[in-house]
Amino acid sequence: MKKHFSYLYLVTVCFFVTTFTLFGQNPSTHPSRKALLKIIDQNFIDAAQQYKVLMNHLPQDKFPKTYFPTTGQYQFSGSEWWCSGFYPGSLLYIYQQTQDSVLLKEANRILNILEKEKFNTTTHDLGFMMFCSFGNAKDIAPKPTHKDILIQSAKSLASRFNPTVGCIKSWDSHNNDYLVIIDNMMNLELLFWATQATGDSSYYNIAVTHANTTMKHHFRSDFSSYHVINYNAQTGDVQQKRTAQGYANESAWARGQAWGLYGYTVMYRATQNPMYLEQAKNIARFILKHPNLPTNKIPYWDFNAPNIPDALRDASAAAVMASALLELSTYVNNSLKKEYISNAEEMLFALSKPPYKAKIGTNGGFLIEHCVGHIPEKTEIDVPLTYADYYFLEAMKRYQALQK
After folding, report:
1. How far apart are CA 167 and CA 190, in angstroms?
2. Helix %, strand %, coil % for the chain, to 5?
3. Is 347 part of a structural domain of the chain?
4. 71 class by beta-carbon count within 10 Å (0-12 exposed, 13-18 middle, 19+ buried)
5. Of 127, 274, 284, 152, which Cα lies nearest the Cα of 207?
6. Are 63 and 78 contacting, i.e. CB atoms less than 8 angstroms apart?
7. Whole-prediction pTM
8. Nearest-CA neighbor of 240 among 181, 184, 283?
């Protein structure tokens, strides 16, 4: 009887070790889903406390950008900054979980300041700015004005579309340069919503054309993406393929890969066109099978950074990847579903503990530490960033929904 028990115990242990090995996981670091859900519940409680710290340090008409732990200084922006929508969006996600009215009041206050950006035609980032904010508000704490605000925002975004190039312009430039960045895939969700809300198919058509042009020119044969494509504004020809925030023109900037993964997942959701699903799956494969992806799934700031394994990690890229993988898991077969969820779980678990999750009352009130904004420009290096918090909260919300 004793020998029989020992044999069964050995078989059981071998089974679990083999299972975790197959999925590239260590059973001592990968929590059960029940345990992760409890961690997520606590994360939202902690987020409410942290964001009260952040809101109490925020100037009346400003938006948070980042915080420098070594000096204790904040960096704020006006409403025109591309990240302005993440603060109200995060407040709304936290309010939805906690029902803390203080956070809803603050979200509504800052939305009133942000509203004027619906007329901003100088940026491609109105999806980030307006849909991550007012888009959340219309679902979580709706007001009659939200629809018109978002429709006007979509009109402003659509005004930057050039049919000859087949893309929405990202950055204004001189001469015939027409600069488009992979990040712009994240702004198309606003256009799809606008077609649903108005019945005007022009928004839908712009989004599809932009995604198709991007798929043709932004991606390499291994489905990694360039950061910036410079088209000729008059002819639509590609003039240059390069990076701005990555290590090198031919490298794979981590957050850029995350933007592409998320963007083509949204494209499939909005169109049900299988070519977008294949694109998202191919990008996921590049990320998850890359030999330079660390075991805890928090990527280096660039997959080809020269000083790996000593290169900085980018927690913001992990947060975006986790959120995208969780949605993508709902569109694929069981084998890929398990792979995507398992990797997202690893990311969420790593982000939920030190060194990535900040202690209450620290980090200026931000949730996540150790993000990388723009190393080539020497800005926002190894600091908290608003979009890391936003997509971390969104990923946790999506994980809860999957378990239900």
Report:
1. 15
2. 55, 10, 30
3. no
4. exposed
5. 127
6. yes
7. 0.92
8. 181
Q: What is the C-alpha to C-alpha distance for residues 10 and 119, in angstroms, rounded to an integer?
A: 66
Cis peptide bond N-terminal to 355, omega within 30: yes
Residue whose pair of structure tokens reads 């694929």 in the numeric block: 332
How many CA atoms, within 13 angstroms, populate the side-chain half-sphere of residue 382? Answer: 5
Reduce the DSSP state of residue 371 to 3 states and report it: strand
What letter would DSSP give residue 183? G
Q: Who contacts 40 (Cβ-Cβ below 8 Å, separation ≥6)?
A: 348, 352, 396, 399, 400
58 token code pair:
């925020």
Do 131 and 193 touch, CB atoms closer than 8 A?
yes
Tokens of 4: 């029989």
Residues 257, 287: contact at Cβ < 8 Å?
Answer: yes
pLDDT in tens, 103-156: 999 999 999 999 999 999 999 999 999 999 999 999 999 999 999 999 999 999
Residue-by-residue DSSP string for 207-254: HHHHHHHHHHHSB-TTS-B-SEEEEETTT--EEEEE-SSSSSTTS-BH
Residue 21 lies in a domain: yes
Which tokens in the block code for residue 259?
Answer: 């933007």
One-letter amino acid for residue 209 of the chain: T
Would you tell me how many other CB atoms lie within 10 Å of the CB of residue 304? 18
pLDDT tens digits, residue range 290-314?
999 999 999 999 999 999 999 999 9
In total, how many domains does the chain have?
Answer: 1
Cα gap 282→157, rounded to integer Å: 28
Report how far residue 98's alpha carbon sits from residue 393's, in angstroms, rounded to the nearest whole number: 12
The beta-strand segments (E) located in 115-176 are 161-162, 167-168
Q: Please report whether residue 290 resides in a domain.
A: no
**Would 18 be classed as within a structural domain?**
yes
In angstroms, the Cα distances linking 241 to 148, 161, 185, 187, 251 are 37, 20, 17, 21, 11
Containing structural domain, residue 3: 1-30
Q: Active-site residues: which are they?
A: 125, 183
Block residue for tokens 């995604």:
211
